[in-house]
Design brief:
Elements: E1 3-10, H1 14-24, E2 32-35, H2 56-67, E3 71-74, E4 78-84, E5 87-91, E6 96-106, E7 110-112, E8 125-126, H3 128-136, E9 145-151, H4 154-164, E10 168-174, H5 178-187, H6 192-204, E11 210-211, E12 214-220, E13 227-232, E14 235-240, E15 243-248, E16 250-252, H7 255-259, E17 264-265, E18 268-269, E19 282-284, H8 294-308, H9 312-316, H10 319-335, E20 351-353, E21 358-359, H11 360-363, H12 369-376, H13 388-396, H14 412-416, H15 418-423
Parallel strand pairs: 1-2, 1-6, 2-3, 6-19, 8-15, 9-10, 9-15, 10-11
Antiparallel strand pairs: 4-5, 5-6, 7-16, 12-13, 13-14, 17-18, 20-21
Bound molecules: flavin-adenine dinucleotide.
């Protein structure tokens, strides 16, 4: 085993940074490691480095972690699987290693729910957060016409980022209906920071058409995207664009938790009040436990870090704040649940599994995930079912019966490094 830590945190987003910060400040001076597959800290919302963010919470957390002599950050490093209880196999660009832990905090975040519709594999079509991440990473969108579509507040954040970087946002297309959106907006009074954020986004997006109760039914173009068809109040609108950024909300990343044997319910990792999972010494915080935004991720991370270092009463002091953000998360889920019509968009020749080019017509013949996988290779490509698994869950109600390790494609050399550890 190359390195051993008291606390290992997987994920350097808000939840992971908060957990590491709380754990590192324990009087026992626990040795803490933070592992993330991105080259910089920050996760999804603070992409590009926590130190670089406007959000002062990000800068404060990162500064404290950098100054702590008991914290090690392992960037661009991916956790592939558990080798044995208390030891993880990780891989970076150069090598594989095992990392030992006493306590493990999973803070692996969420990903977008991408749903198939005709034309969704055309160049120019991407996830909403996906295009935002590219733009934040320097991908040029200046002067491009973009339609931002799908569901959830993320659409507004994405549109604001794209506009800030010079794109023309032709429309924001939200599938949720106006009454549900109005109820959600009224509920923001319970969370003033979110109400303020909504006002700021509203100002930043002034003048952009916002279609509610609407969804993209097709992306059109020959070699790349030219336009999208939007279903709006019984009519079909044809909107010309260079990019479509489309995502139907977020889904917890549960693969690592499942591979470690942690219980997962309704698509999210189950935890007790101290953020402990069903497996001893493994905690989970942030969007892996359910999608609720940055504030919930931060408070769950803090509780997990305190609990992992034995400070239960300090952790308990944050339960009220967590409950408030969980109520916000429940309102979010109710408002932006994807509508049934989205199940009817895929045509027989619409690709559902993008890695293996498997179409809706082939898949719908099968009784479940296992049969489809065995007969069509659906879910067997490099994304390991991360995209088509959630699409087939939504379309056909299929649930993959097991998670395969390593949870990400791994170099053969990384797996070979396991052998000596098996023998010891
Ligand atoms: C694409 C996308 C864009 C978003 N943009 C915004 C936005 O603009 N504004 C907003 O308010 N909210 C945004 N969100 C929501 C945002 O995810 C949450 O508010 C917040 O970032 C959740 O924090 P977290 O710490 O739980 O997870 P995350 O921030 O997602 O952090 C999890 C981290 O764990 C890493 N990780 C996961 N598995 C492994 C592994 N096996 N090995 C190593 N590292 C791993 C991930 O790469 C990631 O860096 C976005 C979400 C997504 C998916």
């Amino acid at each position: 085993m190359t390195q051993h830590f008291d606390i290992v945190v997987v994920g350097a987003g808000p939840a992971g940074l908060a957990a590491a910060h709380a754990a590192a400040s324990a009087t026992a001076r626990s040795k803490v490691a933070i592992i993330d597959d991105n080259p910089l800290s920050g996760g999804q919302i603070w992409r590009g480095g926590a130190a670089q963010q406007h959000d002062r919470r990000a800068r404060a957390l990162w500064q404290a972690l950098e100054q702590a002599d008991n914290v090690t950050f392992l960037p661009a490093t991916r956790v592939l699987m558990q080798v044995q209880p208390g030891a993880l196999l990780v891989q970076n660009a150069r090598q594989a290693d095992t990392i030992g832990y006493q306590k493990l905090v999973l803070a692996t975040g969420a990903r977008e729910l991408l749903l198939p519709f005709p034309g969704w594999t055309l160049p120019g079509v991407s996830g909403a957060g996906g295009l935002q991440a590219l733009a934040k990473g320097g991908y040029p969108v200046e002067g491009k016409r973009v339609v931002v579509a799908g569901s959830g507040p993320l659409l507004l954040a994405v549109a604001a980022t794209l506009r800030e970087r010079g794109a023309t946002v032709a429309a924001i297309v939200e599938q949720a209906g106006l009454p549900a959106l109005a109820r959600f907006a009224a509920g923001l009074a319970l969370t003033p920071s979110k109400a303020l954020q909504a006002l700021r986004l509203g100002a930043a997006l002034r003048g952009i058409p916002y279609y509610t109760d609407s969804y993209v039914s097709a992306a059109c173009g020959t070699d790349s995207l030219d336009a999208v068809l939007v279903q709006h109040k019984g009519a079909s609108l044809d909107i010309a664009c260079d990019y479509l950024a489309c995502g139907y909300g977020l889904l917890p990343n549960t693969e690592l938790a499942l591979a470690l044997g942690c219980a997962v319910e309704a698509g999210a990792v189950s935890t007790d009040p101290w953020q402990y999972t069903s497996v001893a010494n493994i905690l989970c915080a942030g969007e892996g436990t359910g999608v609720g935004g940055v504030d919930l991720a931060l408070v769950e991370g803090r509780i997990a870090g305190l609990a992992a270092t034995g400070r239960a009463s300090e952790a308990q002091a944050h339960f009220g704040e967590r409950d408030a953000w969980r109520r916000f998360a429940a309102r979010l889920a109710r408002t932006f649940a994807p509508r049934a019509e989205l199940r009817t968009l895929a045509l027989p020749d619409t690709i559902v599994c993008r890695c293996e080019d498997v179409c809706h017509g082939e898949l719908r013949e099968h009784p479940g995930w296992r049969s489809a996988k065995l007969h069509t290779r659906c879910g067997m490509g490099p994304c390991q079912g991360r995209v088509c698994g959630s699409a087939t869950d939504f379309l056909y109600g299929w649930r993959p019966d097991a998670v395969r390790t390593p949870i990400w494609p791994a170099r053969a050399g990384s797996i070979i490094t396991l052998e000596p550890h098996k023998e010891t």
